[in-house]
TrEMBL record:
Cellular compartments annotated: Membrane
Function: Essential component of the vacuolar proton pump (V-ATPase), a multimeric enzyme that catalyzes the translocation of protons across the membranes. Required for assembly and activity of the V-ATPase.
Keywords from the UniProt entry: Hydrogen ion transport, Hydrolase, Ion transport, Membrane, Transmembrane, Transmembrane helix, Transport
Entry GO terms, CC: vacuolar proton-transporting V-type ATPase, V0 domain
Entry protein name: V-type proton ATPase subunit a
Organism: Galdieria sulphuraria
Amino acid sequence: MGSLCRSQEMIKLRLFVEKSVAHETMVELAELGVFQLNDLNEEKSTFQRTFAADVRLCDEMQRRLRFLEEQVDFQLEEQRLEDTITVEALQSLQLEELARYLCDLEGNVTEMNSHWGALKAEERKVAEHAILLQAGAKFFEDAPKVSLSEYGTTIMSPDPEHRSINIPRSSAKNDEETTSLLGVSKTGRDGMEESILGYYAGFISFENIHPFERILFRVSRGNAYLRLVSLDEISSVNIRFEKMENEWGRKRVFIVFFPGVALGTKILKICEAFSVSLYNLPEGEVERYRLLQSLEQEFNDLQTVIASTQSQREEAFREIALQLSLWKEKVRREKTIFHALNLLNYDTSNNVYIADGWCPLDEYGNLQDCLSRAQKRAHAQSPTVVEVIKYPKDTPPTFYKLNKFTIVFQNVVESYGVPCYQELNPAPFTIVTFPFLFAIMFGDIGHGMLMTLVAAILIFKEKQLGGRKLNELVQTCFDGRYMILLMGLFSVYTGFIYNECFGVSLNLFQTRWKFTDASSLACGVDSCADALSNKPPLDIYPFGFDPVWSRAQNGLSFLNSYKMKLSIIVGVTQMLLGIVLSYFNASFFRSGLDIWYVFVPQLLFMSCTFGYLVLLIFIKWLTNWNAPSCLSDSRCRPPDLKNTLIGLFMTPYKVAEDAKLFPFQGEIQSVLLLIAIVSVPWMLLPKPLILLYRHRKSKIVIGNEEQRPLLDKELSTQTNNHVQGGTHSDMNKKEEESFDFGEVMIHQLIHTIEFVLGAVSNTASYLRLWALSLAHSELSLVFLEKVLYNTISLEHPIAIMIGFLLWAFLTIGVLCLMESLSAFLHALRLHWVEFQNKFYNLQGEGRKFIPMSFSI
């Protein structure tokens, strides 16, 4: 039985499925979701598969469903209701009938949209034409009057806003008369009376006005007159047309006057090039009024038709919306089934499909029941045959049974790499170590409570938020809500140790130190009989740091010393845990080489160097440097552990008297250094040499076995497979078949150098715990003193309120968001590089178990 520590035990199955029951079998397997299919048609391309046409049909149906969904969302502004999807409803749908229905439905919706577009375009044209007629009154009321002189010229009325246009006449009247400029006419070549001026009127978009004016001026050489009017200038706009303003709000009404037919033809082409909407604008007031009345009647009729059409469209789209989710689920399931069927191999001689795949061992019984249900539902004549492949050649996939709490930690682990089959999983350890490392860097009671509160809200509303589509940031926080909860709780715990709440030290148990006038240094409240002696308290602060350290001048150096040592202790402990876990991996896979020539020298090297440093830290902490015997001895002083560590490698046998922590320290350090030096070639040489010896020996054994009967060879191979078992035995066989001593030696050399150098760099990397904890604490103190306390000292209510809001914004935005993200990334790096690389995913051949399932 598998657990979270190791992946589930897998078995490889081969199914022989009758052709008539293949579809129903895949449906039942996808409903169960515990069987991963292997591709038995790898040599075939996607388009050569048996069910490629069915997959393309499903793709086309999904395209039509996306089109219908877009139309429904656009048409129905309110939230659309959806029917509950049931298995009976899905089974009642037939894919071929649904495909035909969707094809017809797409055509009907397209036709409805085309008809609707034509109605709206006609409505726009009628509304624009009516607006133009109302604007035309303004055009012609302001039109200039001309005097027809006896010399055959037109004399414009004095108006600074209009330009004069001189037009020759073929005949002149003796008597001067005043008339409209548009009323001036001449006799053409065919003897017909022609108007001297022509005009076009319509709507033009706002962004095309300036290019239109320039081209019009160049083509007409200044002989055309353009007048523009915005809708705001038309005071007589009928209220029934006001709701159309959103469709042509960025358009302007225009009229252009021009002399001559040839110029009018050119201007018409210009209007067509700028997509200008031209309409009929009679010059006479009576004609305009009659045309406007007919347009109003036409507009009212259009409004009636549009309202009826809109109601019909909404009803049609509501019916589509009720069935849309059911159709999408049906097509998605069928596409999954056809993809699965394309992975099967068809045996034409026996008319059966052959399926090959992996299944968890404890789900084998459920899989057989599933196959029986498919057989009964399809009324198959012969049952599905299940064959268990005892000695598969390929590596089984990795599968863990996860829940909503453990899945986020497993995802963090697998971001580094998928574990090999039944390799030790770091996730159970990550559940504890990841929040703890985060909390060391983020330790604060107040900040931890805010983070815990946010996580608690997400957990409390997980049913409501789980079914909604959230933005990326909220979705990320929701997926990691349980991790955020643990990080907040651990931060509260470390905050109590640091005695910090929003940067303020809490005096929960009364300080054990006090300051006196006799000395500038504090003394313990129960040992201040002689204040000059500055003795520490006998009864220490029960939990965490004494609040007096936040006010002490040497408080920062004291906290730095503690956090630095704590970082080294935590780092070395976690790395030793990773090395110990590598033993359990090697023991599980029965790899004696990895135990004796990888685990043992690595453990000895790490323990004799940085493990010894951790031991020195604890000895220094446990030594009473204020004891009378120590105070009377001038050599009894706390040593600098950095110098001690350097001396371990430079002069291990020589320890100064004032730097000794225990008797025979020099001799013990010499032995530890010797063991650490011997561990390096111990890691480097034996494993490649033993592998070379085994490879040569296996060649001799194979040469001797060539004379054996074939049956003995097969039995021997099966026996060896059975004894070795597991994934690593298969990999060892592959290595033996293609053994290259130079490659193995270089690989072991790289691994040895990486571990030796990494022991130093990884230990130093854990100092980031101290650095980020210091940065977080100092930032909290700076925001508190410089922002909040300074504004409170002004004793002005508005300044206090502004200071508090600014402090709250900086606390949440910088400390709770940016600092938490920084601490999260650093904790992630420590787990991936410093912890997991000691034992996890060393082969890099793990692959995730991806079963065929409708829920994926």
